[in-house]
Amino acid sequence: MRRRDEADFTEFATAAVHRLRRTAYLMCGDWHRAEDAAQDALVRVYKAWHRLDHRAGLNTYAHKAVVSVVLDQAKRPWRREHVVDQPVERPLADQAGTIDDRLLVIEALADLPPRQRACVVLRYYADLSLEETASVLGIGVGTVKSQSSRGLATLREVLNRPELEEPLDDREVVLS
Amino acid sequence: MTTEIKDLLAGAADDAAQPLHYSIDDVVRRGRRGLRLRRAGVVAAGAITAGAVVAGVTTWSDGSGIPLNGVQPAAPPATGKLLPLQPPPSSLTDAQIIKRCEPQDKQWQRGSRKAGGGTGSLTGWKVAVNQAKGTWLRAILLSPDRKSWAFCQDNAGAGAPRDNYLREDLKWQQDFVVWTDRDGAEGTVPKNVAAVDFEVDGIVSPATVKNGFLLWYAELTPSEVRDKPIWAIYYDANGQELARFDSNVYNPWEGYNADRKPVYPK
To answer: Does residue B13 form part of some domain?
Structure first.
């Protein structure tokens, strides 16, 4: 990579690393894994730098990489979640706010199927468009809408937050 | 309307108390190395290894298949990375090691990833095996009922290796199955195993084996030796190979990870 390109990459990476790490954290619920995922994703961006569209494609590619890394991590046998004999005691949503809401949200996200979780995180946290989310996940726009909607419905129920609503453009073509 | 969900997610991902443990320079260095490796290609990589062999630095392997206890590789595998000497045990007491691991254990238990490792504290746990160097240590801890284990990597300083933690039920451990991550490997060994070597690109590096567990430290990111096996080779007390297992999750040639089986000598 040329020096000028490397300077551009450094600028992009500096601006993106925290957001990518937070996105990964919402996907996996573990700061260590999230940190690894953000770094691995940025290395992929570095390697692909010369062939990426720097005006429009960097953010999407970086998110594609971080989602891919997180999902790859989850497939590794030593990281795989196992069904335990005793179900983990789950804290209940608390209107009084005495329980840490942040952990409740992470736990609720972890209960979503991976694709739903990815749709919710990319749409509502990473702020990707429907088309960008579809591109990142390699699925259709309609599927993004339905998966986001279902994920949000589950979060609404689990977190006891009926006010959570999806945007209007996500509501059409929601499969039952 | 979406403000609430966005606020909720933004709040959950608040990383104000989570400092980044690497710099963008580290990322750039990894990227450069990756590009160099890509350019070098398999042929050049093989040539580097062959050159190292010709240069006579391959004292770590005598070709007999007998484990090379204590003999360490000095030359790099094709990745260009050194397989370092295995660090000695920590000078800390078991209690001091466990105390250093407790914060990570608490965080693990707060996380959503559980694997039946139990929910209690580390009180009464034993240190089965450990390695330490400078500001960091890595240890395998065993629960009093010997049903759960924990892998703890703790670095009180900056840089690599970074903190890492896993706690799970021992029943998930399979005989002769172990996986390598960026800092090496850790896991159980069957009772009849006396030594375990890791082999990368023909270079052999012995793991530390004690109390039914192994620790192998290597500054080796498996994705950088993509498509190549990182063999974990298990030997009995007579030096006979009992089994070997490709611990590289990025190598598709030894079977899909979930289905990958140890290879037993015929």
So the answer is: no
